[in-house]
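Let us work through a complete example step by step.
Step 1: write down the sequence.
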Amino acid sequence: LSKMPPKDAPKLSLAAVRQRSLSVPGCRELPLEAGANPNSMISFVVGLDEQDSKQLARINIFVQTGTVGTSRILNGKVRQTFRRNVTSLDTLGRLLRNPEKLVEIDDALVSFDDKTAQAAASSFQQRTLQKEAELAEVGHCILQVEKEKLEKHLKDLSAAAANNNSSGKKNHVAAKQQQPKKKGPAAAKKPIKGRDSDDSDDGSDDSSSDSEESLDGLEFQFSLPEDVMAQVDQCLRDIQKLDKIVKGVATNGEGTVFLYGNGGV
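Step 2: predict the structure and record it as tokens.
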């Protein structure tokens, strides 16, 4: 069984620390201050190979406790950081090559006077108001464009409605002009196809049949959106490819239904 080291044994060896420091570029051992124990502490200066003097640092190693202290100069004052319980020579070599950096805190982030606070608040408010004004201007431009689109759409709808009314009146007049003139009382009692001649004696006339015959061959004008008309043309071409006959068409301006073949088959 291996023997455990005594509790008061040093965590680092002075000889091993000196040997490891020789492999670190820009590292040189410093003489200890008066009163320091040479058997428990050793000091080095690192960063001598760097051109920037800010990279210089003093490393104090306490071999008994394994504590490594790094000293740097910040704002004309010496500041220190400590790493405890260092027992590995690899960790020690890494600290000698790259000493720990000091944590710098910007005083402007921690405290500032009332004048600075008021200036910052005023600048922030000015930037906020300017940004809101820019957003408002962009929104106004968008609303103006939407208004123009709606006005154009309303104008087109009004023109289409007026065109439809005019076309409907023309078709109605044309239908009346093409209706055959009735001659004598016998024309009012024209028998309906498929019924007996006696059924015509009940006093009902054949106005619906005459209306259907009078509308035969007439052409009607209508106006639909271009995309709807394109879909209608495509449907008619597809039905023609199926070698079917269109029986009826119904539309509401947005959609169109075709009845073709034998009841839609």
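Step 3: interpret the result. The chain has seven helices and seven strands.
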